[in-house]
Each structure stands twice: as structure tokens, then as C-alpha cells.
Amino acid sequence: MKPIAFNDFDDFKAMLAKDLPAGNWYPIRQQMINDFANATLDKQWIHLDEKRAAKESPFKSTVAHGFMSVAMISKLLEEAFTIKSVKMGLNYGLNKVRFPNPVPVNSELRMLAKITAIEELANNGIKVTFFCTIEIKGQEKPACVAEFLAALYE
User: Domains plus CATH for the chain?
Assistant: First the structure.
């Protein structure tokens, strides 16, 4: 998928209350889960021990960390749109996050996002609020639903 391109903030503001295009599907492999566990020090067996998970977990496999889905939002948004005039972007935070469905290893995820607010910031910036839904291919319930905020500067 090629990102939607905007020249500047004025062009981008036309997206308020609109959906960004659906993202690409990304496979969630065990190595990604292991890497996330090592980076966050969250090494619960449900994420790392494939044999134990196959026997003892109700999901019958390892599952990705919920926060791994959240951590992917910045990259997934970057693939959905670009603003040519932006010099810098920062994660501003999260207002709401839920993990309605576990993400079994080898699942595929993609993001749907809607721009719900755009506010002016000092220093020639804007704060954008996105309503993000990270879908699991073939599943009715999403992996993650989050209200994500980003600060962008021209």
C-alpha cells in the first residue's frame, strides 16, 4: 500500500473525521515476540514457551504481548500517510487502550485508523488523535483498539 501524501498541515486537515486506508497485513512470528519480550523484559511463558503454550494455554500456542500491538501503531500509521512538510513526529500518548483478543503466533495483523481530532501546538505543530483498530486476519474481534496521539511539526 502506498501512503496517502499531503503537502502540508492545511492539506492534511481535510482528513479530520475520515478513515485512513486499511494497512498491509503483517505476520507475527515467534522471533518478533521473542525480541519484544527481550526488549521489555516481559518473559512470561505464554509468550515464549511454545511447547508449554501448546499444552497448557487455552490458545494452544504462544501469543504476542498486547503492548506489542500498541508498539506497532507508529509504524503502521507511517505506512498509511505522509505529510511532505513534516520535519519531526513524536508519540504524544494514549488515551484509551484495550486488548479484546489475543494474537496467536503466526497471526496476521493490520490497522484501520480514523483521524478524530487535530489540534494546534506551539512551535508550528499539530496534535493528531487517531482511533486505531488492529485487526487479526480471520478473527471477528480485534487484537487492539486504541486512541493514539501524535505530535507533528513542520
Answer: 4-153 (3.10.129.10)
